[in-house]
Amino acid sequence: MVVARLGRSKRWVVVAVAAVALLPVAACGSSGSAGNASGAAGADRAQAIGRWQDDFCPTVQPELAAKRLSYSKYVNGPSYLAMGDAMTPNTFDCLATFEIDLPKRKHPENADVAIAIYNRNEKAWSSVEEYYQKRLKDWLAVYEELEVGGNEHKVRERDGALKPFLDKKLDGPWVEGQAYAIKASGVYRGSVLAAVRTEDYALFIRIETPMDPEVSQALTAVEFYEKRGEKPPAELNEEGIESRRVLPFTDEEIAEWTTTEYIAAVHKAVEAKLGK
Question: Which of 238, 198, 234 is nearest to 215 (CA)?
Answer without folding.
Answer: 238
